[in-house]
Amino acid sequence: MALRGFFQRERTEVITEELDLHLEGTEHEKIKSKTISKEQAIGLPSVYANVELISNVISSLEVKLYKELEGSVEEVKGDRRIDLLNDSPNSLMSGDELKKAMVRDYLLDGACYVYMCGQGYSKDRWSLYYIPTTDISLLYSPDIIFKTVTINIQGQNFNPDNFIICTKNTVDGVKGKGIVVECNSILKQALDNMNYTTQTMGNGGVKRGVLQSTRRLTAEAIGELKKAWKRLYEQNNDCIVLNEGITYHELQQTGAEMQMIESKNAIDADICRLFNVPVNLFNSTIPEDVWDAFVKLAIMPIVNKFEKAINKALLTTEEQGKYYFAFDTKQLNKGDIEKRFKAYEIALKNGFMTPSEVRFEEDLNEIESLNFVKLSLGDVLMHIESGEIYTPNTNTKVNQDYTNVVQNGADGTKMVKGGEKDASGGEK
Question: Does 196 lie in the same domain as 175?
Answer without folding.
Answer: yes
